[in-house]
Structure formats: structure tokens, C-alpha cells
Write a structure and sequence with these properties.
The protein is of the alpha/beta class. About 25% of the residues lie in helices and about 25% in strands. The chain is built from four helices and twelve strands; from the N terminus they run αβαβββββαβββββαβ. It is globular, with a radius of gyration of 17 Å. The two termini are about 25 Å apart. The relative contact order is 0.21.
């Protein structure tokens, strides 16, 4: 992966909360979120794996699949999994943000971002797409991933929102007291972190369905201390993982195009 492209991915995910704006005068909400493949491209393969998937094995599979996609030997793939409890560190993770290093396994990873948590009842969607078949535009790709998550949440009557100064997808909690500066209380419900290699993406997104939110206390999630973390069930929605998967697939097809079972 070229150094300049790696920097673009990293800055897009973690630099903006330090005042950098890769899009210049264009805010993320203004970026075109349609990210369809070129006409004649095969549909994206869609796979759901039951049970808990080992994280290291997942990374190895993603890297192998990304290479096959680049070489023209495999179709694009969205792979939905759950992991056992663990923490991952992105390319800009600060050691001080790992508050309980002995609690769960910690995996260093090449995706953009800082520390995050994965665990049971959290849906992780690994996205292996060839941007050369779509657009070689990192900002637009990540904006499309955000739109995918927001559309998924909307399908379950949850209003997810972007924030220019921090990553992920957020929900406002009006039932809670306002913050000291008067701004509303907000919680993070979904994380986004990607890596590109030869313009093929891997890693992806995660949405909290019903994970143990106490597990987040072992890290400073994505380096953000002023806001909390929530889940669909924490918001009072009696949804299942299967419900979430249906909403994910419908929203994905709206933005990235048709899918077919793996």
C-alpha cells in the first residue's frame, strides 16, 4: 500500500478529531454517498458466519481475500461475524487509552483509528471491495460506509448521525443531562475503521446490537472521553442479530449495489 494512501485512510479516520479536514471546504455530509460498481461487475458476495470468529483468523482471511479480489480471482465480499471479547488498536492508538491491558486480548491492526472493542452481540461487517471497480476516492468511500450504517439504523427507527470532530456514528440521548458546555449528551453506536491495499478495502464497520457495554470501560473508545457508548438494545429496541443483518443488507444494496449469498 502506498504511503500517501495509507496516510489518507488514517487521517480520514483519526486526524479530523485533531482539526484536520481532508475534504477541504467540503464536509463529509456533502460527499456523494453512492458507491456503485462499474456496469457489468458481479454482485457482492454476502456471508454470515454463526458463532464467534477468532480475530487473527479473520484478519488472515480478509488479507487473503483482498489479494484474490485484486488479482481478479474472487468477487467482492461482505463478511458478517461476531468475535469473542477483545480490544483492537488502530494506527493512531495511544497507549494511555488502553486502561485495562490484561482484561482481554489486544490486537494491533493496520486499520485507521484508535482503540475499539469487539465482542459477542456486536455485529462486525468486514468489507472487501475493489475501489478500482467503483471510485478511487477514499473520502467518498468512507462517507458511503457511514451512510450505510446510518441507513441501517434508520431501518430500525434509530437516528444515527455523523460528527465532523469525531469518528463513528452517534445517537443523541435527550433523556440525559446536557454536557457542561450545554451540548446534548451523545453515545456512539457504531465504529468504522478500514484499510486499503492496492485499492481493495478490508476491515469495516461494527454496530452494537446487545454487547456488554461494561467491556468498553477497559479502553477510551476511539480516544473520545466526553461521550459514551450505546447499543440498539440499550436504546430500548428489542432487535436481534438477524434483524440487524436484514437492515444491513438492505442499506448496503441501496449504496453499493446488489448482493448475492456467498
Amino acid at each position: 500500500m502506498r504511503k500517501d494512501l495509507a496516510q489518507a485512510v488514517t487521517l480520514r479516520h483519526i486526524g479530523m478529531q485533531r482539526g484536520n479536514d481532508l475534504s477541504g471546504h467540503m464536509q463529509r455530509s456533502e460527499i456523494n454517498t453512492g458507491f456503485f460498481a462499474a456496469e457489468g461487475s458481479p454482485p457482492v458476495r454476502w456471508q454470515v458466519t454463526d458463532g464467534l470468529t477468532d480475530y487473527s483468523e479473520a484478519v488472515a482471511r480478509m488479507e487473503a481475500r483482498a489479494a484474490e479480489i485484486h488479482n481478479g480471482d474472487a468477487d467482492e465480499l461482505v463478511w458478517l461475524v461476531e468475535h469473542p471479547p477483545l480490544y483492537t488498536a488502530g494506527t493512531s492508538a495511544q497507549t494511555s487509552d488502553l486502561l485495562a491491558p490484561e482484561r482481554f486480548p489486544v490486537h494491533m491492526t493496520g486499520r485507521g483509528g484508535e482503540y475499539t472493542y469487539h465482542g459477542p452481540a456486536q455485529r462486525v461487517a468486514y468489507v472487501m471491495l475493489d475501489l478500482k471497480r467503483r471510485r478511487c476516492d477514499v473520502r467518498a468511500f468512507v462517507s458511503s460506509l457511514e451512510a450505510w450504517v446510518i441507513g441501517t439504523l434508520a431501518g430500525m427507527n434509530v437516528k444515527g448521525e455523523r460528527r465532523e470532530d469525531r469518528v463513528g456514528v452517534w445517537v443523541v440521548r435527550p433523556e440525559r443531562p446536557a454536557l457542561p458546555d450545554g451540548s446534548p449528551s451523545e453515545d456512539k453506536i457504531a465504529a468504522i475503521g478500514i484499510r486499503l491495499r492496492r485499492w481493495v478495502s478490508f476491515h469495516g464497520i461494527s454496530i452494537n446490537v446487545e454487547p456488554d457495554l461494561e467491556h468498553y470501560t477497559g479502553i477510551v473508545p476511539c480516544g473520545v472521553t466526553a461521550h459514551g457508548v450505546t447499543s440498539l438494545v440499550d436504546l430500548g429496541l428489542p432487535v436481534t442479530m438477524a434483524d440487524t443483518d436484514l437492515a444491513l443488507r438492505a442499506s448496503f444494496e441501496d449504496i453499493f449495489g446488489p448482493t448475492v449469498n456467498f
